[in-house]
Design a protein that fits this description.
Two copies of one chain form a homodimer.
Chain A lengths: L1 H5 L5 H19 L6 H8 L3 H5 L5 H25 L5 H17 L6 H8 L6 H26 L9 H22 L4 H27 L18
Helix pairs in contact in A: 2-3, 2-5, 5-6, 5-8, 6-8, 6-9, 6-10, 8-9, 9-10
């Protein structure tokens, strides 16, 4: 593969994209810190300098891998959910597609979840980039929850941040039990937890409404859209 | 410290215990895989062979550290909760003390939680030991949940495994948001999530009871015991 060293721009973007996809699969399995230029060069049957011709440093490579992961996540989870109506249908779609994606990743691991542990004590640019992406994702969930309240599909006193915290917990528990404990049925538990969470918001609202006898009972919650992704 | 090499049994158990506590603090921060004989020897200002005199191999050391962590966990969370009455008070104590412990560990990290990610793809004796400990802990929670049902403090149709899954999710979300995102208020969110979870079980039971009009409404849930540990 010395021709890649001599002519790094031949096949240019195509080669770079192929290297990145392999790098992503290494990082999913070994963690971002397990991704080194040497491991990647081995897997690509390239020289280290061949890989360096495409990525200036290991940190650049890790950063590009994170960006690629984020793109995949957006394509699988975020953009398809934007096609759902604003409010609860979108929130339910975000959760259902997130669960579907994490359950597809059980064999490899979710970089957002594994990365959170890998980088919780490791300051630097990669940690900052990862925190930023996870924050963006939590913000997308929070926005959909807030819109569900605005649309009257969730009770007005719903704490959107608390809702996102608990949704995140369900997906973390799915990742933990399915990937570490290897316990079957974890996907169904995450889905059941979300259904219970949604229902409990309405129950809390309707019992405070009946106590105060001052509000309309909250609209009945529709069944969460937990159908598998096409 | 060459005297330790020549006379490895002088001060014997005391030195070994001191090394283990330092090893635990390294493993909490760097992960069990970050714990090497070399790093430990540096921190103890001992020679590597001095450390080897106490632990035959790196895996033995990791295994002992895990056992020590398990002991600390039992002392902080499990045994004090056994002093609470069987059933809901015990379940609530297990959760409250677990949350208190994880919130004390925010600066260092919980080995059960970090280890789950570190070892999810790394087969071997340490993974097996860690899975066994986490399973034991989940079983203790499950037993307390089942006893709460038997005592009539949780509705008879409560799914104890689902309850444990969701409790685990709340603590994972606490660890994630407090340690990785560094978001304030995560302890309170975990506690609020548990209170809502408990209430929703009773609501689910009372609404199915009022639908069927065949059962007494479930007992009112008492406020979870989320007072800080003494």
């Amino acid at each position: 593969m010395t021709e890649l060293i001599q002519k790094p721009l031949r096949k240019g973007e195509q080669t770079r994209a192929a290297i990145l996809e392999v790098a992503l699969s290494i990082a999913s399995r070994e963690g971002l810190e397990g991704l080194t230029i040497g491991v990647l060069a081995d897997r690509m049957a390239m020289s280290k300098s061949g890989v360096f011709a495409h990525f200036g440093s290991r940190e650049d490579l890790q950063s590009e891998v994170l960006r690629l992961y984020h793109q995949h996540f957006e394509q699988d989870v975020f953009y398809p959910s934007l096609r759902e109506p604003r409010g609860l249908p979108r929130l339910e779609s975000l959760f259902a597609r997130w669960v579907a994606r994490v359950s597809m990743e059980i064999a490899s691991g979710c970089i957002y979840i594994s990365g959170a542990v890998e980088y919780d004590d490791r300051p630097g640019a990669i940690r900052e980039q990862l925190v930023e992406m996870v924050r963006l994702w939590q913000l997308a969930l929070q926005r959909a929850a807030t819109q569900s309240i605005q649309e009257g599909q969730l009770p007005p006193d719903t704490d959107a941040d608390q809702l996102v915290f608990e949704m995140y917990g369900l997906v973390l528990a799915l990742h933990h039990d399915a990937r570490f404990i290897k316990r079957p049925g974890s996907v169904e538990r995450a889905q059941a937890g979300f259904a219970r969470l949604m229902n409990s918001l309405h129950h809390a609202a309707s019992s405070s409404a009946s106590t105060a006898a001052s509000k309309e009972p909250a609209k009945k919650h529709t069944k969460p859209n937990t159908k598998p992704l096409a």
